[in-house]
Structures are given as structure tokens and as C-alpha cells.
Amino acid sequence: MSQSIDIYLTYCAMKAHFGKGDYDFVKFNGKTKVSRDSFWKRKDRVWFVMLGRKYNSHLIQSIEDYLLANFIVETKGYIGNFNDQNYFDWMDRMSRLETLFKNEATKLFEDGYILENRGNNLLILGGTENGLLYGVLSLLESFGFKKYSADDPIKLPETTEFDLPKSSVKIPAINYRTTNYYDARDVEYASWNKLSSRDSWGLFVHTYEVLVPPEKYGKTNPEYYSLIDGKRNPVTQLCLSNPNVLTLVVSELKKRIKENPKAKYWSVSQNDNDKHCQCGPCKALDVKYGNVPSGSVTWFTNEVAKQIPDKIISTLAYWYTRKAPKNIKIEPNVNIMLCNIESTREMPVFETDPAFTKDLQDWGKMSNDILIWDYNIQFANPISPFPNLHTIGPNVKFYIENNVNALFMQATGNKAEFGQLRSYLITQLMWNPQRDSDEIINEFLVGYYGDASKYVRNYIDAMKEALLETPFRLNIFGDPRDAINNYLSAENIEIYHKIFDEAESAVSNNSTFLKRVKEIRLPLMIAEIQIAGQINPGKPGSFYDFTDSGNVIPKKSMRSNVLSFIEKAKKAGIARIGERAITIDDYSYNFERIFDRMDAMKSAISYKKTVKSLSSPEGG
User: Fold this and answer.
1) Which helix H or strand E contains 4, and what residues bound it?
2) How far does the chain reach from its first CA to its final CA, in angstroms?
3) Coil/strand/helix, residue 416
4) What per-residue confidence (pLDDT) applies to 159?
5) Cα gap 269→257, rounded to integer Å
6) 499: which residues sit within 8 A by CB, 6+ positions away?
7) Model pLDDT, residue 604
8) % residues pLDDT > 90 (the chain)
9) DSSP H helical segments within 144-275, as ranges?
10) Contact predicate 521/532, CB 8 Å
11) From 21-25, 75-79, 318-322, 411-415, the region with the lowest mean pLDDT
């Protein structure tokens, strides 16, 4: 009789779960406060006895499944309406679903998902890695939940009434999606915006020196390294035609894979120099495969990939290896990482960089697995305005048209100009390149800046129009001072400030939105400061002015601008002015020295004195 009482208690717990209260069968593991003695007060005890006998005779496989199947049909829990057919129908549906899931799961790869709307029920099936998580988060996004930045809480929907989405299948066009913007480094943000993990990489770029360390083999085996001008030099590249080098690389890789078996990508790629091997056999490989240095690199990578077929072996098409080889078939588990560091950004790369465009198209004809290492900021000045938002969407679409299925959008790990917007736009486009960029931008602006959104949009559009009015090359290694006659002219800067005045006024009664608007004005402030330093003293926009006695001094307004920028930048969490160099504290200190030294000029012993040389320079 103990079994019958256990079945009765499970029934009571499940009835509580389906009742009007907040009891959760799963949370409490089917435990309730119902006593075992209460079983003897029921007149329908025989039903629980009979259910136990069905279970013992293997007519049913699970008591919980039997009860669940009947509660779904008879939610009030009337035992008189419970029957075996409900259970058999339920098990049949589950079997068909299991088959469906198994069949469909293979099509979803790692991160795809299926939302299956079945009336009042929604089924979510995910791929082998993060598919299920992305399916759940996408469902929440359809209800209005959004994660716009790492530092801000999740934006909640404005309603508590939701409709289940229509059935859909989502498989990302780009398998590996990552960027290193500040926000993207946050795990929660990365999950919401469906970014791939850097943990997918066991080794990441410039790995020849890691796999065959010069400090280990340089003296004992110089033949492992490049022959340059008749001499072996360990601080260069590998001699790829040397069979012992191949053996060493494969052995070292297998050892590392054993230590980190979950990593999918393993880079076997050139060091960051152009000193490739000039020995006869290496040159012969280059000549054989298109008369380009990428010939020997591609051949060598293929040979490694053949011996490690269950991992993706990645190599660089970069610098001297960017041109694609010929007369060689790339192994299916080889990834080509192509970099476009030379491309300018005023328009999509297929318009500004025909050389890169041809290289990508050539590699795309040879490989089904290309990773683009793209660049999205002005590296020396990542806080300053860099109006390239309109190029990101067309670039991503162009990439996938040429067999790109992995993308690293390099930025900066520090806070930068429009960092939250840029990161959000990039993550959305990498997941679905067919989305309209303007739609994504507008969605973000409304959600993140509220009533100021239309003014922020006006600012973005005004700067883009100014950029494109005259021929101008937007270089990732450029400087705001380069744009003094273009999008950062004095007239344009005045227009931008008026737009920001309107934006701040529109959200003056909302401290959160106002703070965010003030933060995106900082790039304009620092650009003004940098530009002012190259304008001659006394002229409009210059950092300096003349005193009545003709001395050069910082303008009071400029001194105020610098101090205001530094204070606001620190509050905004800006750590660096450059990508790696010039901390905000260094920046502040440098200007303090300028101000102090110029203030001290009047007390200098040479002030207003004629300085004469005591000797003449050698040679007259």
C-alpha cells in the first residue's frame, strides 16, 4: 500500500501545481504538506492502487508522466476523467517531438534555435552550444526586454501582457561573432546579444613563435626558421618546407588540444613581421601555388589540418600573405583569417579598397570558411567622432556574400565614441546581416536616449552628410585634426552643439537619459580641444590668444573646456584617450603642465629679455 500512498502524494503535489496557488512542483520536487494519513480518508483510494498495478505491469512507464498527461487535459484534477488514452496520446506526442528535435537539432549548428508555437504552448529547441539560451533570450526580446549596455540594467517591457511569437527558425549567417567593445566583454551582455566566446579559440593569431619557440629551438635548430639573405634568423617566421617543423607544430598542437579539448579554433599563423623564408624549397612552394608567399603558408596549414581533422585550423591572410594562392584546394577544416587594416571607412570597403575587395573575392572562391578581422574605430583617438556607422551594414553583407562565416570586429576594450550604439549595431548585424542598419540604430536610440533620440539621430546624420560632402578618406589611423575642413569644421561643430543643446533640453527631466546624452557629447568636446591646438593664436577656434602685450596664453574658454571634459570623462568611466596609451590622468596632467608653465612665463628670468649666444655654432 506504500506505493499507492506515494502515488497519491504525487497526485496532490501536481494538483497544487495546476491549481490557482503559487506552488511549483519542480521547485519543491513534488513535496507538499499533505500527510500520508489523509490517503485513508479518500473514497477513491482504489484508483491509486490500480495506477500502481499498471506501473508494475509496465503498462505505463512513468507515474509522473501519466499524471501530467491527464492534468494537461483535466486541469481541475477530477480523477474520474483521467484515463490511459490521455497518457498514450501524450507519449506519442513526446516521441514525435523527440524525433523532430533530433532531426532539426542537426540543422541548427551551435547557436541556432527553433521557436514552435503550438497554441498555448511554445517549444524552444536550440543548437549544440548556446542555441537554447539564445532561443529563450530572443523570446524575452520579443516581449520587450532589451540589454543595451553592460553597465545599465535590462530594459523592461512597458506592458505585462504578451503574445507568443509565431513559429520561426533562426540560424546565424555568421557562425563565429565577436567584437571587443567595452560592453561586449560583459558575459550577460554577450549572451543577450548572441556573441560567440573567445573560449572557442585555443590559440589566436601570430602563433608560429608559440608553437616553435625561438628561445627553445633558435640556437639548437636554426634551420626551423626563415632563411633571410643567406642566414637563418629565429626572430622571423618558420621554414614551412622543413618536415621537422611540421612534425613539431602538429605535436605541440595535439598536446594543447588535449589540455583544452573544448576549443574549436586553433591558429597556426605567421608572426607579426614580413620576414618569410627565402630558402629554395619554400620559394618552390610559393611559385607552385601562385607565385605568392601565401602559397607555402596555405600548403603548410593544409598539412596540419589533415592531421587534426576534428578541429578548425586557422591561418592569417595578412600583410605579405593577403593575396590568395592558386592551384591549391583548401582543406575543409581550414579557416582563413583575412584582415583589412588598410581600408578607409568613409564608404563600404568594396568602394574604398579595390585591392582588399579582390583579395576577399579570390579567397572566397577557394574557401568556405573565412574570418574577417575588421576595424571600427580611429585607434589613436577612439573617443573622437568617427562617422562610419553607415558603412558597417553594407560591409557585413559584402563579407557573407564571399563565404565569410566568422567575424571579429575590432574596436577598443575601453569606453569609446558611441560605444554602446556601435556594439549593439554590430552584434545585431552579425546575428542577422539582412536587418536594416537604420532600423537597428533607431531602435537603440529610442530605447537608450528616450525623447532625445531624434536629436541624436540628427547629429549622426548631420556628421555623415558633412563627411560625404567633399572627398575625404576616413582613416582608422587618422586624427580629428585631419577633418578640420570636413566633418569637424568650425561651422559643423557649431551645428552639432546646437543639436546637443536640443537633445539635452528634451530629456532635462530624466536624469538617466540626460546623463547618457551628455556622455555622447564628450567626443565632440575632445575633438574641439585637439583641433584648437593647431589653429594659429588669436584666430577663431584656436586654443590660444594674445594678451595686450603680445604674449600667447590659453583662452579662458579653452581652459574651461579642458577641465570640463576631464571631469565629465572621469564620471563617464573613460579610462584612456588612446587605444592603449594616454590614460585620462595622463591627459589631465599634461594640460596642467601646459597651463602652469604658461602662467609662469611672466616670472621667468628670460621674460622680455634679449637672449644672445656666447659662442657661434660650429661651421658659422
Assistant:
1) helix 2-18
2) 119
3) coil
4) 87
5) 16
6) 455, 458, 459, 462
7) 56
8) 73
9) 187-192, 208-211, 214-217, 243-259
10) no
11) 75-79
